[in-house]
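Following up on my earlier thread - several people asked me to post the actual chain instead of describing it. Fair enough. Here it is, all 101 residues.
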Amino acid sequence: MRNRKYDPDFKTEAVRLVVEEKLSIREVERNLGITFGVLKGWVHKHQDLRGFGLVGSVSPLSPEVELKQLRKENDQLRRERDILKKAVAIFSTDPHRYSGS
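Reply from S.P.:
Thanks for posting it. Predicted structure:
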């Protein structure tokens, strides 16, 4: 099964339908084509942040949650950079090796 990425605005709207419009989680998942069980986690996260409410299109994150996400993103970017460095090193060592000549 493939992990699907959802846009933050989409997540916020889905949570709003459950919290403000009082629609069931299953109904919103079915209507929006959200993977079963995913919306429940979004709603729980919103409830943990409910002191902030739905401000604009994105719920604010606590500094700890934001730091965790930024560290995860930073690690991913470092891995991607390292892969690109290795690719450049491989392709720059022997130009005839990969050119088909």
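The two ends are 41 Å apart (CA to CA). That should answer part of your original question.
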